Amino acid sequence: MLTEPIQIALVDDHRLFRSGIASLIGSFNRYNILFEAAHGKELVDKITSGLVPDIVLLDINMPVMDGISTAQWLKKSHPSIRTIILSMFEDAEKVLAMVKLGVKGYLLKDAEPHEFEAALLKVADGELYYPDFVTHHLLNNFNNDKASAVKLNPREIEFLRLTGTELTYKEIADTMCISVRTVDSYRDQLFEKLQIKSRVGLVLYSIKNKLIDL
């Protein structure tokens, strides 16, 4: 029977979100927040200095060192540390990339408190916690492994179409009724997914794939 709390590292660049999750975890039994970090580099520094958690709750989109790079480092340098991904999106490509890196759990940031507790419980006990949307992506990937076309969800397509207008990113956010930060996440997500580095590239992709009519 465990007598010591399970040590948690919380890695996310949103301070208010970290604070809320830390308070939530503090209300559960068995767990203790060992430290918080704003990005992967800060996590690496803290672990290297001797603060080694049992579980890392890891955001994907962060400055300095993002979640994918951090998960790669954890897999190579500390494979015994279990990782649960925190994400704003049900992004198939990133879900699959993280699963291949051996993450033990995946949670949407708007998940219910009981889902956070269930994920921690399963992962702490050596099990996996993958919600239905992750299982769905894994099944689709298995069934369509030979397909090479990039799959875009409706909101990504809407964003791509709006990049072909004269609207600023802030105006695009207003049009889509989302925050500027979420628009930035869509942009960065598409940059990575489509291997594009600029808004011009996004527009050219949209034209080529007939998402925008000239």
From TrEMBL:
Q: Where is the HTH luxR-type domain?
A: 145-210
The answer to keyword Signal applying to this record is: no
Pfam families xref list: GerE, Response_reg
Supply the InterPro entries for this chain: CheY-like_superfamily, NreC/VraR/RcsB-like_REC, Sig_transdc_resp-reg_C-effctor, Sig_transdc_resp-reg_receiver, Tscrpt_reg_LuxR_C, WalR-like
Q: Where is the Response regulatory domain?
A: 7-124
- Tell me the residues on which 4-aspartylphosphate occurs: D59
Q: Which GO terms describe its molecular function?
A: DNA binding
Record's keyword terms, sorted: DNA-binding, Phosphoprotein, Transcription, Transcription regulation
Q: Which SUPFAM superfamilies match?
A: C-terminal effector domain of the bipartite response regulators, CheY-like
Name assigned to this protein: DNA-binding NarL/FixJ family response regulator
Which lineage is the organism of this entry classified under, starting from the top rank?
Answer: Bacteria, Pseudomonadati, Bacteroidota, Sphingobacteriia, Sphingobacteriales
